[in-house]
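Blinded run. Sample ID left blank on purpose so nobody reads anything into the name before looking at the predicted structure. Input follows.
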Amino acid sequence: MKKYIIIFCLLSFLPILTFAQSTTKGDFDTKEQKEQFTKYIVKPKMPKNLAFSFKKSTVTNVIQYLSDSTRRTYTRYLDTYFTYYAPGEETNGVTELNVSVDSLIWIFKRDGDSIYYDSQDDELIPPLNIEDYEESSVVLGRNFNYYYSPYWDFGRIDGNKLLMDRNYINDPLDGISDSKRNYFWNYRLSDENLSELVDVLKNLIPPDAIDTSMKRKVIFNYSTEEMAFTDTSSIVQLVYDNARVYTLKATISDLKPKRERTRIYGFGVFVDIIDCKGSGTYELDITPQGRTEGARGEFNFELLLRDRNEIIRETINEKVIYQLLKNYKI
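Blinded prediction complete.
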């Protein structure tokens, strides 16, 4: 009798063992379960001497509300074409990129007027008398080195030519003496602004394999209209995966300015930033092979500013698209 009881118990326990073994192997009863638990390694690859040519397109709409009920608006369309490549292999996880800003197309609309310039059109004269064009074109033709850290966030920027340009701007004899122009030339050639231009990844790359259910917090930086913002608790998630592309999405809800003062359109002096609400989304596309295909984002800011006794409310809506145009061997 005891023998039969022991056999019965073993037979009863066998399905439990089978189930446990199946689960640890990663088998799934449904397609939905498999998709939920499948993890992906999402990493960029930048092989030595393989160039990546990008177009960065931004559409920026700005509205200013002044204390006397005056309303000022302008819209800028800016396409910036740049190329980078890795001159060597990674060193201790650090990736070095040689960057060149090749050309731009600029359109500025204000008060019913529209101004257009394409740096590739030899028949057009650069509208250097328009301050917004001068600001936007400071980066044109610049070359520098951009470094990604082992975690694929911003490391540093350097380059002999860039250093010479920065020194020239501030040269006491030959540099830019006008304080306003000196400021925006320095800003446009700063690490902050150059990183904003060419950093397609924007700290979205996960350190480990991920699935679509996983969320993580990251620091997200964004710059527009000569203002730099940061959100220390942006949420990043893998929202799309197939055989062609992985999409990482950042949801940014609390962008705050890094500085207390700024320069805004229509004012010849710095203004105080009293309050700011900033939010946005940013999506990054990377293939399973590690090629950065592009990105897209939209950001909104509500700023309360002060110039002495003048209170200004400014809203900014900016849409940005990075598009990989081509790859080629150097």
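Unblinding after everyone has recorded impressions. The chain has two domains: 1-29, 38-325.
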